[in-house]
Amino acid sequence: MQTSTNTLIGDALNRVDGPAKVTGTAEYAGDHRIEGGIAEGYIVEAPAGPGRITRLDTTAAERAEGVITVLTHRNAPAQKPYGTPEEEGRFTQSHAVLENDQVRHFGEPVALVIAGTLEQARHAASLVEIKIESTEGVYNPLDHRDKEEKPESVDGLDEVDTHDGDFDAAFSASDISVEASYFTGAQHSAAMEPHVTVAQWKNGKLTIHMAIQIIASAVSAFANTLGIDEENVRIISPFTGGGFGSKLGVHNEAILAALGAIACGRPVRVAQTRRNVFSNGPHRSRHLQELKLGASRDGKLKAIRHYSLAGMARNYPFAEAPASPTRASYAADAIHTIHRVVKADIPKVDSMRAPGEAIGTLTFETAIDELAEKCGIDPVEFRVLNEPEADPSSGDAFADRRLVECIRTGAEKFGWSGRVTPGSRRDGRKLIGQGMAVAIRPNTLNPSSAEVRLLPDGRLTARLDMTDIGTGTYTILTQIAAETLSIPADRITVELGDSSFPETSGSGGSFGAASSGSALFAACNSLKSALGERLAQAGVAANDFTIKGDRIAVGDRDIALADILDADGLSVEGSVDPDDYANGKAEYSYGVQFAEVEVDADTGELRVRRLLGVFDAGRILNIKTARSQLMGGMIFGIGGALLEETQMDDRYGSFMNRDFAEYHIAVNRDVPDLEVHMLDGFSEHSNPLGSKGIGELGICGAGPAIANAIYEATGVRVRKFPIHLEDVL
Ligand code: MOS
To answer: Does the beta carbon of 508 sit less than 6 angstroms from any atom of ligand 1?
Structure first.
């Protein structure tokens, strides 16, 4: 409930957009209506790939009832050639579709049928005749290790590989070692709302309603694809139904909608079907990871080598960096991390839920568990023993590292009593096991701006192009303005998701709240100064004043806002520049996860009984939405450990399980009581709010804690993920 008393940062304020969402008045992109109607586009996917289109007959489709047009490479409006991300950045490059008769991968769009209704478009799409002459494709990176190469970059990191210390010497000097290969399956983000775009083209201007995480780069993507000026692109996205990385950038449906609108001169909506999402949305590649770890008999890590091999879409050079968290986790004499890719004829690979950490900690933290056991040291103590004094990856001092505090707090709250002999804990037919793992995730701040406007009646409006992808952005921004200006939350309106508003980092990389929040904080402070000036102009010396309803209290005086503001109110901008917070210190968010699992001794059925996380994310902006985000991450950890995998038919390069019946996301039955704890804190080096990134922290470490618990229950070290019941029998 909103209250008229002051709301503070950190309070468990209910989502300010909650009522709009549950009553259906929150407008998601697909809900957008336009007077005169919106034509519906339906994607025709290539039935094979890579290859060349040798026959594409749209005659029957064009004659079908309600069809307006069928777009193919033969009649699509002009586009710039598909971009080169090395030069332009992957989110802003040209994302041209229907370029020519070449097909890059199975499922790539080869036509868009536009009709009056979705049913008409879908029916007509089934009438398009298409033949592909396919060429031999590379689908499974593991089958093509001869084509392995070093990518230009991994997930935006400066270094693809790191070679700190003499690995061979440190490894040979180790008394105890672990050497193993791990496989993690492909995954899809599976947001509740599939990718969807409504495009309008009028007088050379493009208006886009779409589901997106970052508005500004999407504006550039449309401009770069269509060869128009950015000023002529407006994107509106007040609500996005989940992203998890899959909506960082634009995808085929967005460009197709724009092409459709240009081609037929009327608004066009293209919604990816759930099946489309699995071929036209981005995915997390399958990975092979090899770990070589060495320690001294007394449990000091000496040598760490983490190698990762991923499939990378041939024309879209993004690769994940699973070995990146390994660089900053523990002290060792030598730490080598290596990332390699095989270019493959597969759909776009891109960021997904804690890219790097989610699958990197899945392997590394299970290998650490194994090494601790071989050393005869409790996994909790092993980790504490190997705490680094400075960031092993950079040598920089840590801004604040409270990992040990997380670990100790977690062990106590969970009731960790040390490792037991695997298979020795039973509850009837069930084998019980416990395990733990740590979470670490870089903390970043990106340039962002915000505008605030104070109206004479005392209401405040804040505007930013930031998005709320379900995380609670509207709510935390309301709280930041409420606390900074002492204005009650119910008198504040936050407006988001419009490219005409000041530019922010958008939602991604766990930097959204800090970046947009800091910008808003700056704007609110500027507003205070501007109000002070207005008061001074009115002859009131005011170092200290308080907004109270439509009046402003200065000492014992009380002035109507209307006396110093005109009807439009007072509007100011503020921004945050990360350089102002650069301090040469290594910044991360931290956490620990403890899991208890049960394994049916006869059937191998795997169930998580308990999952407990303790996190250090600096100052928490809203205890309720933060807890929800961390829980969501932990649930993805369950998915990564036990459930989620998109399987490719390696004969054809097609994903086989393209719906939620067969792509298994953790559901209520899979999720036990989750216990989330957050350390009280204020991270003084991170940003003016003292917060650190939380969005992707919850997933880190959750999967390996479960895998380590499965080991304790069964004595089986499973090195492929997700772990299935047949793996432990
Ligand atoms: Mo995140 S995978 O940067 O949305």
So the answer is: yes
Question: Is the Cβ–Cβ distance between 332 and 674 less than 8 Å?
Answer: no
Residue nearest (by alpha carbon) to ligand 1 atom 4? 245
Same domain, 541 and 685: no
Is the shortest distance between the CB of 30 and ligand 1 below 6 Å? no
Residue 709's H or E segment, with its range, is helix 702-714
Residue 468: give the domain boundaries.
18-27+448-576
Residue 658 C-alpha from the chain's centroid: 21
User: From the CB of 701, is ligand 1 less than 6 Å away?
Assistant: no
SS (H, E, C) 514-531: HHHHHHHHHHHHHHHHHH
Contacts of 401 (CB under 8 A, 6+ apart): 387, 588, 590
Choose the final residue of a domain: 260, 283, 306: 283
Structure tokens at 147: 């084509």
Q: Rounded distance, CA 536 to CA 710, Å?
A: 68
Ligand 1, from 157, 351, 441, 505: best to mutate by most atoms within 8 Å of Cβ? 351
Task: Point out the ligand 1 atom lying closest to the alpha carbon of residue 247.
Answer: 4
677 contacts 410 by C-beta, under 8 angstroms: yes
Reply yes or no on whether 136 is catalytic: no
Q: Is 348 in the pocket of ligand 1 (CB under 6 A)?
A: no
- DSSP letter at 447 equals -
Residue 632 has a pLDDT of: 97
CA–centroid distance, 503 to ligand 1, in Å, is 18
Report how far ligand 1's centroid is from the alpha carbon of 664 (Å).
20
For 105-140, b/e burial (b = at least 16 CB within 10 A) is bbbbbbbbbbbeebebbebbbebbebebebeebbbe
Q: How confident is the model at residue 3 (pLDDT cuts 50, 70, 90)?
A: very low
Q: Looking at the structure, tell me whether residues 564 and 592 fall in a common domain.
A: no
Write down the residue that tokens 């960021």 correspond to.
351
Task: Give distance in angstroms: CA of 427 to centre of ligand 1.
Answer: 40
Least-confidence region, from 177-191, 351-365, 531-545: 531-545
Q: Are 672 and 609 in contact (CB under 8 A)?
A: yes
Average pLDDT in the 41-63 region?
98
One-letter amino acid of 150: K
Nearest to 496 by CA among 510, 523, 521, 478: 478
The interface pTM score, or ipTM, of the predicted complex is 0.98
> Counting atoms of ligand 1 from 1, which one is nearest the CA of 213?
4
Using pLDDT thresholds of 50, 70 and 90, give the confidence band for residue 2: very low
Assign 3-state DSSP to the chain and report helix, strand, coil percentages, each to 5. Answer: 30, 25, 45
Which residue is associated with the tokens 């970052």?
214
Q: Domain total for the chain?
A: 3
356 lines ligand 1 (CB under 6 A): no
Question: Nearest 5°: CA angle at 719, between 592 and 282?
Answer: 75
> What is the C-alpha separation between 201 and 266, in angstroms, rounded?
7
User: Greatest CA span in the chain, whole angstroms?
Assistant: 83
Please compute, for residue 586, the number of CA atoms within 13 A of its CA located in the half-sphere on the CB side: 20
> Does one domain contain both 23 and 36?
no
Mark whether 415 and 463 lie in a shared domain. Answer: no
pLDDT digits (tens, 9 = 90+) for 676-701: 999 999 999 999 999 999 999 999 99
Strand partners, 437: 593
At residue 544 the predicted structure's pLDDT band, cuts being 50, 70 and 90, is confident
Q: Could you tell me if residue 530 is inside a domain?
A: yes
State the closest ligand 1 atom to the C-alpha of 246, by its place in the atom list counted from 1.
4
The percentage of the chain sitting over the pLDDT mark of 90, rounded to a whole number, equals: 95
Preceding omega of 502 cis (within 30 degrees of 0): no
Q: How far does the centroid of ligand 1 lie from the alpha carbon of residue 300, in Å? A: 34
Which numbered atom of ligand 1 lies nearest the CA of 245?
4
